[in-house]
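HUMAN: Ready with one sample?

ASSISTANT:
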Amino acid sequence: MLHTIRCIGYAAANRIAAAARLDLGATRKILDLLSTQGLTSQVEGESDSWGLTERGREEDAARIDLELDVSNTRIHVESAFDAFLELNPPLLQVCHDWQMHVVGGTPVLNDHSDADYDVAVIERLAKIHRSIGRLVDDLTIQLARFGTYGARLSDAFERVDRGEHAFFTDRLDSYHTVWFQLHEDLLSTLGRSREG
């Protein structure tokens, strides 16, 4: 739970539950317990939004370090991160191309009136999705907690493919958002920053 919050940032309990793939009631109990330990706190003025305290961030970092050492998986996570970094620019480009469309040489907001264009962008996402799926599957063999990303990315992709296009970039559980959280998880697991 600590690590889920670290990767998604301040969020409502239902969003934390979805990211952790846990029942909402169980999530609230865990959040309350972590709060009594000084590891999480509710966002002031928002009764159901939670974040990590500084102590919670430190505790999560220590637990993740221990997890890598005990499981002897650091080299596997580093390899997965390198592969992720190769997929990241194409994913960011496909998200950009979903939101913007060049018409007569001028970039304009994509109003999604050109079905052929949208289908081509979704096909590019499908190719990236197959690659990240294999990466996450391999990583999950090493550290089971990464399995939530495979399920969440697949759910978002299937919704986009069925025509629920908000799941591409426009929702808190969109493909792009889950991808961002996976990136954050890999960084924090390895103790790196986005700048470094």
Q: What stands out?
A: The mean pLDDT is 92. The beta strands are 11-12, 40-42, 49-52, 100-103, 106-109.
